[in-house]
Amino acid sequence: MDLLSQDSRTFLLGVSVTIAIFMMLFAIRNRIRDHRVKLEVAHGFSHQLIQEAGEFLPGSTAFLYVEIKNCGEKQRFIEKPALKLSEKIDGENAFYITTVNDPHSWPQKLEPGAVFKKETNLRNLHQKLTSKISRRAKLRFEVRDTLGKTYKSKWFKMADVIGQLQVEESV
Predict the structure, then answer these.
(1) How far is CA 153 from CA 34, 40, 110, 147, in A?
(2) How many domains does the chain have?
(3) Whether residue 87 sits in one domain with residue 143
């Protein structure tokens, strides 16, 4: 007694093979995605409030930071982040923000899932750039890995920097 006709068996076999191929391709895609190099570069603003004996002191300090996250499965080594400007200053539009006693050695090692964050004082940066670029100028961070690939944050405007400094003054 045959429960399924030959056509039904052929149809079920076709559906099974199609599902198996789809699942195999999905697994391959995920495996490739896991091994792909991916660094996410983001910028942000933060404000430091100082507290003494349970009381906040007047004022705050505004910072601009770059955050670099290794979203890949392999460790990466990154070079020092650069601040890229949409306008040139004396023929240059990329600047490295560094400190005299920079605690970081370059290149910096980033393990999978690790985040690197570097801050700079926003008021000092504004004073350095304000007379040299317009309020409409755009800025972003760029970082290269030691393999030469460049990763970029989204653009932000000098007007955003000025807005954050106004927040600093109002706190």
Answers:
(1) 22, 8, 17, 19
(2) 2
(3) yes
